[in-house]
User: What shape does this take?
Amino acid sequence: MAERIGFLGIGAMGQPMAANLLRRGLDVTVLVHRRPEPARALESLGARVAGSLADLIAGCPMVIACLPTSAEVEATVLGPGGVLDAGAPGGIFVDMGTSRPASTQMLARRLHEREIAMVDAPITGGVRGAAEGTLTIYAGGRAEDVARVRPALDAMGRAIFHMGDIGSGHVTKLLNNMISLSSMAVLAEVLPLGVRAGLDPARLVDALSAGSAAAPMLQARSTRILDREFTPSFQVALAHKDLRLAHELAQEHNLPVPATTSALLTYTMARSLGLDAEDTVALVKVWERLAGVEVKRNA
Assistant: This one.
């Protein structure tokens, strides 16, 4: 019989992920996060709604968290009514956010003292991947613990990689984001430069998408910029946090990461311009302002 799952963090990513667990026939309890509407929508699909964090944890041997930062994950585990307080020996906690690997390892040690297992299983694939159940998931933890949570991961993702010991999933996610977020920072520089140099924006996007610079996300991101579509799928503030964690990881290993450091500067500039809540494609606005141009379709 499948274990009851407590799901925390039913936001833009978490709500469709929890919905996919329910569609797979798994038993899910949720907690109101910031707004009541996501919990009510999941309740209509068969989820139970817990009255408190402690109630959710006490009633669910498996707790999955999809939270924005390590601070929130730490509060969920270490705080009043959290996993250490309310969880029973034999339970398991799964962190599916993008967290600091050192924090993940610390929490795993603390949970182990209470005979509670932990798996880190950060995700990539965006809101669309969350809705379609096609996320890529990087798992870290003991093989038997990853196997235990695998039915839940399979309900939410298409590609699940067991990367090694606890924390290795979060390391992998940070490396992934170093590449993807740095590429977005470069694109944000390139398009305004091309427009400043006199090129037609749409024609430039088509040309780059057909050349050696083409990458899976180039066309999609560039099209959103041309259409001035900055509704967040992945917010600038969260991207900045991920790159900062990646930079910290490199510092812990005494390795310079100049390309990531440069990209982090662009995200910092975007935050200084008040773009925190916009999608990462809004990075283009940093260089548009410097170049005095706007990358959009010509009438």
Residues 5-165 form a domain with the Rossmann fold fold (CATH 3.40.50.720).
